[in-house]
Amino acid sequence: MPNSEQIVAEASAATERISPEQAVKLLDDPDVVLVDVREQTEVEKAGTIRGAVHAPRGFLEFKADPDSPMHEQALSSGKRLVVFCASGGRAALAAKTLKELGLGKVAHVHGGGFEALKKAGAPTTL
Questions:
Q1: Strand 106-109 relative to strand 80-84: parallel, antiparallel, unpaired?
Q2: Could you give the CA distance from residue 69 to residue 1 in angstroms, rounded to a whole number?
Q3: With left for phi above 0 and alpha for psi between -120 and 50, is residue 81 left, alpha or beta?
Q4: H or E element, residue 40
């Protein structure tokens, strides 16, 4: 039976990975949406990247489904989705899930999460 580390590694390998620095360069691209999959309490405590869409990992499938009352329009916009979390694990899992749901243009921030994005120069809401 695989452990969580193996599952995250498999998800990471199955999806496009970009560095925090590469993600920051995409912030002004109108064809890119940053997706924060951290929990609500994490966002309330630390803020998020300015302009990011919040879709907690536990609700991701509902946020991505156009038929769900929880649907987040930005996730089905056809734009490239760049997913991040606190450290990278949930982002990899979320990116794989979005890809499996048919959203083809998906990448996740690898090599750090929210703090690495801040260090790379991403503006935050706090």
A1: parallel
A2: 35
A3: beta
A4: helix 40-46
d(CA 102, CA 113): 24
The pair of structure tokens assigned to 120 is 């790379």
- Which pTM does this prediction carry? 0.96
Q: Is 85 in the active site?
A: yes
* Predicted confidence (pLDDT) per residue in 15-51, tens digit: 999 999 999 999 999 999 999 999 999 999 999 999 9
Q: How many Å apart are CA 80 and CA 93, to the nearest integer?
A: 17
Q: How far apart are the first and last CA of the chain?
A: 41
CB 106 within 8 A of CB 95: yes
Selected catalytic residue, list 33, 37, 82, 85: 85
Q: How many beta carbons lie within 10 A of that of residue 77, not counting itself? A: 14
Quick check: 71 and 65 in contact, CB under 8 A? yes
Report pLDDT for 21: 97
Instruction: Number of helices (H) and strands (E) in the chain: give both, helices first.
Output: 6, 5
